[in-house]
Write a structure and sequence with these properties.
Elements lengths: L1 H21 L7 H6 L1 H6 L7 H27 L1
Length: 77
Amino acid sequence: MNTALMILLAIASIILIISVLLQSSKSDGLSGSIAGGAEQLFGKRKSRGYEAVLEKITVVAAVCFIVLSIVLVAISK
């Protein structure tokens, strides 16, 4: 049981790392916050597509990682 949960934790962590690395940057640095702040605030949002799928994968992988970590700590005690 412990080994299976550790394997699932490793898979969740790899998926989380890959999904975070594949996402595009959300900011342009200091110049983007001054000059392009209004465009970012009022600009169109991409609710569908590649970015949305990666965002959902990241959230699911992060929740799985946290839950599996807590379960493994609880089991080890």
